[in-house]
Amino acid sequence: MPASEANVARLREQVRATTRNAPGVYLMRGAHGEVLYVGKSTQVRTRLLSYFRLPWPEHRHARMLRETSSIEWEPQPSEFAALLREVRLIRAHLPRYNVRSARPLDKWWVISIARGPAPRLRIQRASAAARSRDVAQIIGPFASRRPLQDALRVLNDALGLRDCSDRVPLHLADVQELFDAMHPAMQRTPRCHRYETRRCLGPCVGATTEYQYRTQLTRAKAVLEGRDDSPQQQLVREMAAASASLSYERAGWLRDRLTALQELEAQLSRVREALARPSFVYAVPGHDGDDRLYLVRHGVVVAEARCQEPGTVNAMQDLERQATQAVPTGALVDRLDELLLVESWFRGRNGAKAIVAETVVGALEGLGLAAAPLN
Ligand code: SF4
């Protein structure tokens, strides 16, 4: 038997001897201890044994098994606990074989706003925005890039914001050197049609001050945060005027622009809903009586307690009392994967399995543990 097949046989025996059918996560480690893959299942033993029946070399998980030196598993009290642990392990290890989910943020897009005097609204992969040191604010996440491109084009045009590359040099009107009318920047004639058609304030040619540009940027943020719909209102007025003057082609063009902004707003309101959700306690009846409480704040799990352990329950109650209700204006990109997990988990459940309460005591009552050992 080749060495790799002997290794696979050894791993199979190890799985048979040490795992059981319960919710949990498992890690496949390579020869140097590196994590190759993280998975989760409600039936860990069955899931792991299924890997040994995959066709080799066709199936990538069968190939992965030939690189695996050891398999570890951690039992978890519930499917929710296993999902949460899986997301956190993947984020910590970025395993090579978790192709689609190893870098969960790669799947998502955000609108980022950089630091600096005249930043643009930029569409980036959530992972790139999370790594960047220049990013001052992030709005999102969004599942696809295309609708964002259309909507930002309309928003930039409406508010006069730049959309050019970061390599374009900027010359703002309030920079001291530009008081000299002979400065080369003041002599510059922009080739950019956006300035010439009044769709950009022209921070590249000294046509705007930093204050004027920032005022428009603040308006753009207000639109993205759902506090200002003046660009939409303006489009509605222009559409009505175009229709009244029988300019149906222009009215149709304006309608498409309005639709782009409305679709962006629909996506943003879903993100805001998840972020603005106040604190609540989620109680999950656990495997073998290991019931757990999760304190969810602004869409992410911030604390966890075992119901049998008074210390952890009391600690969670303290944390709940300290809860600040300030709503973040942007997603916490480093915890975006968890936010998405929590959001999709609760979207798929309505009451039957989810015991959601406003307080720790309420959650314990939901579990039928009213006599819980709280102070
Ligand atoms: S006018 Fe200048 S700053 Fe504005 S988009 Fe064009 S090149 Fe960029």
Can you walk through the features of this model?
This protein is an alpha+beta fold. It folds into three domains: 3-102, GIY-YIG endonuclease, CATH 3.40.1440; 106-275, no CATH class; 277-366, no CATH class. Helix content is 44%, strand content 16%. It is built from 14 helices and ten strands. The strands form three sheets. The protein has a four-stranded antiparallel sheet. A three-stranded antiparallel sheet has the order 2-1-3. The chain has a three-stranded antiparallel sheet with strand order 5-4-6. The chain is elongated. Residues 162-164, 168, 190, 192, 194-195, 200, 202-204 line the site of iron/sulfur cluster.
Order of strands, widest sheet: 9-8-7-10
The helix/strand order is: HEEHHEHEEHEHHHHHHEEEHHEH
Helix/strand/pairing category? alpha+beta
How big is the Rg?
27 Å
Query: What's the number of domains?
Result: 3
Shape: elongated
Distance, first to last CA: 62 Å
Short key terms for the protein model shown above:
375 residues, alpha+beta, GIY-YIG endonuclease, 3 domains, 4-stranded antiparallel beta sheet, 3-stranded antiparallel beta sheet, 16% strand, binds iron/sulfur cluster
Short synopsis of the structure:
With 375 residues, the chain is an alpha+beta fold.
List the helices and strands and how they pair.
Blueprint: H1 3-18, E1 24-29, E2 35-41, H2 44-51, H3 60-67, E3 70-75, H4 79-93, E4 109-114, E5 121-125, H5 126-131, E6 135-142, H6 146-159, H7 184-187, H8 193-196, H9 210-224, H10 230-244, H11 248-276, E7 280-284, E8 292-297, E9 300-306, H12 310-321, H13 336-347, E10 355-357, H14 360-366
Antiparallel strand pairs: 1-2, 1-3, 4-5, 4-6, 7-8, 7-10, 8-9
Helix pairs in contact: 4-13, 6-11, 10-11
